[in-house]
Amino acid sequence: MAFNLCGKTALVTGAGRGIGRAIAGKLAAAGASVMVNDLDESALCETEEALLKSGYKIGYAVGDLTEPSTPDTLVQTTLEKFGSLDIIVNNAGYSWDGVIQKTTDEQFLAMLDIHLVAPFRILRAASSYIREAAKRENAAGKTVMRKVVNITSIAGTDGNPGQSGYSSGKAGVIGLTKTLAKEWGRYNVNVNAVGFGLINTRLVQPLTGDGAKMEMHGHEIKIGVQSAMLESVKQACPLGRLGTPDEAAGTVLFFCSPLSDYVTGEVLICGGGFHF
Predict the structure, then answer these.
(1) Do residues 49 and 24 touch, judged by C-beta distance below 8 A?
(2) Which CATH number characterizes residue 197's domain?
(3) Which residue, 252, 251, 230, is CA-closest to 241?
(4) Which stretches does DSSP call E strand in the chain?
(5) Would you name the residues annotated as active-site residues?
(6) Cα-based torsion angle of the residue sequence 174, 180, 181, 184 in order, rounded to the nearest 10 degrees
(7) What domain count does the chain have?
(8) What is the pLDDT of residues 137-186, one digit of tens each?
(9) Which of 9, 19, 95, 109 has the largest count of CB atoms under 10 Å?
(10) Are residues 61 and 49 in contact, defined by beta-carbon separation less than 8 angstroms?
(11) CA angle 36, 39, 41 (to 5 degrees)
């Protein structure tokens, strides 16, 4: 069954690189106008430039989603540029790991802020437009399906040692997903979640003593995964490898497409069959 997203507007957070960039590319290739967001302006500009070169309709908005005002500004910027909002992909996130006795309040709350509070604020900010648009469409005898895809993880469904904050945030967004599916069904909105296993991005590169780091709110955070764990995951995974950003984005595209018009409140795992 062929489909296109022409006439639709999508908002994708965490689109500066990796999975988020791949999601934005797939939605744009399907015909959607796409507003991309990220905290890293240089990475976000690279995404925008790459997609514009392909002739896609792209807008970009730099902003820290953990700042309380940013989600409202982001939704308003999207509506001002494209005039509608039909697809929301809450993808932004990162990991800040540690066993529980070494995890500070700030560290734990940072994981809840980006993975749970930020999606909540974005959806709350979009609610007025979504409700009013649905009421107008219903009054005109039209049914227009809109889509929300929240990104979770097998750490949220199964738990993972050293990730009490990350796992809690990713588990919480599943509850948010299921609740919004019930609240927004009357407005013809499908609200689903995709849970990723280990996808081959910078966050799961082999961890070394002087390896990659990221700066976040004044903290320098190591990023990567122990080499031994990566190998054990590959051996335990039925498909025998990590996933690619393109494969991860394909799962999200399904939930953004008409193919999922009668699917809501569900969590689809994209992990190659691997579970922690």
Answers:
(1) no
(2) 3.40.50.720
(3) 230
(4) 9-12, 33-38, 58-62, 87-90, 146-153, 189-196, 213-216, 219-222, 267-270
(5) 166
(6) -170
(7) 1
(8) 999 999 999 999 999 999 999 999 999 999 999 999 999 999 999 999 99
(9) 19
(10) no
(11) 75
pTM comes to 0.95
Check if the beta carbon of residue 78 is closer than 8 Å to that of residue 89.
no
Which residues form the domain of 37? 9-202+242-270
Which contacts qualify for 137-141: CB closer than 8 Å, 24 or more apart? 137/188, 138/188
Lowest mean pLDDT among 69-78, 228-237, 241-250, 255-264: 228-237
Backbone angles phi, psi at 78, to 5 degrees: -65, -45
Burial status of residue 169 (CB atoms within 10 A of its CB: 0-12, 13-18, 19 or more): buried
Kindly report the backbone phi and psi dihedral angles of residue 31, in degrees, each rounded to the nearest multiple of 5, phi listed first: 110, -5
Alpha helices in 30-159 (DSSP H): 41-53, 70-82, 105-112, 118-139, 154-158
- For 242, the token pair is 């990590």
pLDDT band at 198 (very low <50, low <70, confident <90, very high): very high
pLDDT category, 195, cuts 50, 70, 90?
A: very high
Closest CA to 198 of 16, 11, 18, 17: 18
> Model confidence at 211, in pLDDT bands (50, 70, 90)?
low
With a cut of 70, say whether residue 210 has pLDDT above it: no
